[in-house]
């Protein structure tokens, strides 16, 4: 009897559809084989990644609107704002853009995660961008509503980045483990 139940369970599991996941972001979510790919593989998801180098949250918001008109997802991961923070974009506007993306996901019954990156004091080398990006991450933590927020990764350090912003493969592995442990 137990053998029959086990076989039935295995048979039924073969028909389950993997969750469909979308990654929205900038260059921090574009690393080939990076944290997003490691997470997708580990979780057995089917994923799309619409992240692009140099993009701002305003672009991400517009891209997400279009993407959700043509595709459906179970989860969306948003990791953006670095380019906004490094530029002159008002941080309140950045938070509003991300909240708009969160609200759009909620409207479509999609579980949404906002990633607050890494500890800027451990990785970044330039004072002004470091300060603004750190401030933006604090605003995400304090102001975003109705989403799962993944706090800044504590394990990524200066040696995990050659340029003080983008993390290398070693940093990507640490970041992936951080994200996985905070789902």
Layout of strands and helices, then pairs:
Blueprint: H1 2-13, E1 20-25, H2 35-43, E2 46-49, H3 57-70, E3 75-79, H4 82-86, H5 91-107, E4 111-115, H6 120-123, H7 127-143, E5 148-150, H8 169-181
Parallel strand pairs: 1-2, 1-3, 3-4, 4-5
Helix pairs in contact: 2-8, 3-5, 5-7
The number of helical runs is 8
Strand order of the largest sheet: 2-1-3-4-5
Q: Which geometry do the CA atoms define?
A: globular
> How many beta-strand runs?
5
Element string (H = helix, E = strand): HEHEHEHHEHHEH
**What structural class do the secondary elements suggest?**
alpha/beta
How far is the first residue's CA from the last residue's CA? 36 Å
The average pLDDT value, as a whole number, equals 92
Low-confidence stretches: none
Helical content stands at 40-55%
User: Radius of gyration in whole Å, from Cα?
Assistant: 18 Å
The share of residues in extended strands comes to: 5-15%
Question: Biggest sheet, open or closed, and with what strands and sense?
Answer: 5 strands, parallel
């Amino acid at each position: 009897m137990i053998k029959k139940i086990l076989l039935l369970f295995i048979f039924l599991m073969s028909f389950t559809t993997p969750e469909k996941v979308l990654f929205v972001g900038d260059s921090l979510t574009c690393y080939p084989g990076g944290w997003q790919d490691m997470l997708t593989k580990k979780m057995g998801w089917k994923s799309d990644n619409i992240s692009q180098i140099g993009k701002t949250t305003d672009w991400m918001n517009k891209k997400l609107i279009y993407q959700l008109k043509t595709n459906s997802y179970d989860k969306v991961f948003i990791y953006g704002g670095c380019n906004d923070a490094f530029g002159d974009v008002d941080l309140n506007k950045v938070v509003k853009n991300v909240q708009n993306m969160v609200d759009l996901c909620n409207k479509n019954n999609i579980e949404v995660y906002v990633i607050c990156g890494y500890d800027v004091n451990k990785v970044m080398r330039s004072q002004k961008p470091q300060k603004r990006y750190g401030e933006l991450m604090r605003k995400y933590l304090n102001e975003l509503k109705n989403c799962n927020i993944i706090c800044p990764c504590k394990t990524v350090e200066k040696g995990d980045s050659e340029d003080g912003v983008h993390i290398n493969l070693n940093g990507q592995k640490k970041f992936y483990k951080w994200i996985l442990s905070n789902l």
